[in-house]
Amino acid sequence: MKSKIIEGFSKLNKEQKINWLNQQYGGGSGDLKNILEQYWNHNADLQKLHDEFTENTISNFYLPYGIAPNFLINDEIYALPMAIEESSVVAAASKSAKFWLDKGGFKTKLLGNTKLGHIHFIYKGEGSKLLQWFNTHLKEELIKQSKDLTKNMQMRGGGIVNIELIDKSKEIENYYQIKGSFNTQDSMGANFINSCLEQFSKTFKTEFQKSNIFNEEEKNSLQIIMSILSNYTPDCMARAEVSCKIKDLKDDSGMPPEEFAWKFKQAVEIAEVEPYRAATHNKGIMNGVDSVVIATGNDFRAVEACAHTFASHKGKYTSLTHCDIKNDQFRFWLDLPISLGIVGGLTKLHPLVIASLQILNNPSAEKLMQIVAVAGLAQNFAAIRSLITTGIQKGHMKMHLTNIINQLGATEKEKKEILNIFKEKTISHHLVAAELERLRKEQ
Ligand code: MEV
Predict the structure, then answer these.
(1) Which of 139, 318, 321, 414 is most buried per CB count within 10 Å?
(2) Distance in angstroms (rounded) separating the CA atoms of residues 425 and 324
C-alpha cells in the first residue's frame, strides 16, 4: 500500500507520471499506458494547450459532442452544440425543437443579470451603529478603494451594482454580511467578484480599526470569516417558454391534444409538489442545460448548484418548469437562474468551445443564458412528452441499444441485424446478448 504514496507527483513530466501509474495501477503490462497515450491529440501544440488547462494532466477525457438543430428561438434558427454522454439527450432535444418549429418556437427573455458575493463576518456590538457607519462611510470607501479593480469592467458597462450590510445575527449570534451585487457583462465574473470582495474585506478591516465610532472591545470583536462569491444568483435569470393552442398539441402516439395537455400539466404539477419527482424532473432539465454549458466551456457545477438552490428557495424542493392552460392556450416555461460567460476561463482557448460559440453565432453572455434555458425547457418537454405517452424506455433504450451492441463486440453486419430485430422489440442487455448469440450460431 505504501508504494502507492508518491511525493512530488506534479513535478514528474507526463511520461514519468504515466509510467508510475502504469506500474502502480496497470499491472505494468503497458495496457493502461497505451490507453492514456492513445487519447493524446496528434497535434502536439494542441495537446500542450489541453495539458495546461489543469494540473497533472496525463490524457484527454472525451465526451460525445453533438448538435441538436432546428431550434427556433425568438424568430431565429439555432443549432445547439451539446457535450453529453447520455445516449438519448441530443435526440430528445432535436425532437422538441422540431415539435415547436411550426408553433412559433421558443421565446426567451432575460429576467436579470446581477451576480452576488458576500463578506461573512462576526461583529460583537450594536447592529444599528454598524449599519449607520456602513451607510455614511464604509459603502463609499469600499467603492472608492476598489476603483483599480472595477475600472475595466465599468468601461465595459459592468461593475459594482450595490453593496449592502445584512444583519444575520438572528440566525447565528453576531453574524453579519456585506453583500455585493455585480454586473460582470460577458464574463462569468468569478475572478472579478472574488477580487472585489477581497479588496472590500481589506478596506473594511482598515477603516473599521481607524474609525472613532467603535470602542476597543467592538474593534477587537471583528472577525472576517470569508469573502466569496455566491453561486446562487436568483437575480441573474433567463426565462424560456413555449405556447400554442391546445388543439395543436398533436403527438405521434395518437393521444388526443386535450388529454395530452391535461396529462402534461398534471405531470408538471406533480413535480411542483413532490420532491421525489422534482429531482428527476429537474435532472432532465439539467441534461439539456449542462450539455450546452459544457460545450460552451462554462462551469456546470456552478450552474447545477444555482439551479438546485433556486429549486428549493421556498423551503421545499420543487420543479424548475411550470405549465399553465388558459382559454385553450397551453403555456410551458422555465425560469433558470444561471451565470455564464463567453469571455474568460476556457472560452477563448478550447478549440471546441470556440467552435460551439461560433455555431451559436457568438452570442453575448445574456443571450447564451437564454439559449441554455431553451435547451433545458426542450429537454423537459421531451421527457414529459415521452413519460405521459409511450413511456421513457422506448426512446431511451433505442438510443442505448447501440451502446449494448458495442459492449458485446458485435461486427458492423451483426450491428445492423440486431438494430433491425429490436426495432419493435423490448430491449434489454440480456435479450440483445441472446439474439447476438443466436445470430452467431446461425452463421
Ligand atoms: C433521464 O436522464 C431524465 C429523465 O428521467 C427526466 C424525467 O424523468 O423527466 C427522463
Answers:
(1) 321
(2) 36
Nearest alpha carbon to residue 184 among 197, 203, 200, 172: 197
Terminal CA-to-CA distance of the chain, rounded, Å?
Answer: 49
**Atom number, ligand 1, closest to the C-alpha of residue 89:** 2
List, for residues 341-373, the tens digit of each pLDDT value: 999 888 899 999 999 999 999 999 999 999 999
Residue 162 φ/ψ, nearest 5 degrees = -165, 155
Report the residue among 387, 397, 399, 400 best suited for mutation to probe ligand 1: largest number of ligand atoms under 8 A from its CB: 387
Q: For residues 226 and 224, what is the distance between their CA atoms, to the nearest angstrom?
A: 6
Residue nearest to atom 6 of ligand 1 (CA): 284
Q: Tell whether ligand 1 has an atom less than 6 A from the beta carbon of residue 291.
A: no
**CA 371 / ligand 1 centre spacing (Å):** 20
Q: How close is the Cα of 288 to the center of ligand 1, in Å?
A: 11
Closest C-alpha to ligand 1, atom 2: 284
Strand partners of residue 236 = 113
Residue 396 Cβ inside 6 Å of ligand 1? The answer reads no
List the grid coordinates of 134: 456602513
One-letter amino acid of 307? A
For 182-199, how does the pLDDT look when each residue is reduced to its tens digit (9 = 90+)? 999 999 999 999 999 999
Give exposure, 83-114, as e/b (b: 16+ Cβ within 10 Å). bbeebbbbbbbbbbbebbeeeebbbbeebebb
**CA 85 – CA 291 distance, rounded (Å):** 9
Sheet strand arrangement including 329-337? 107-113, 236-245, 329-337, 321-326
Query: Grid coordinates representing 196?
Result: 472585489
281 lines ligand 1 (CB under 6 A): yes
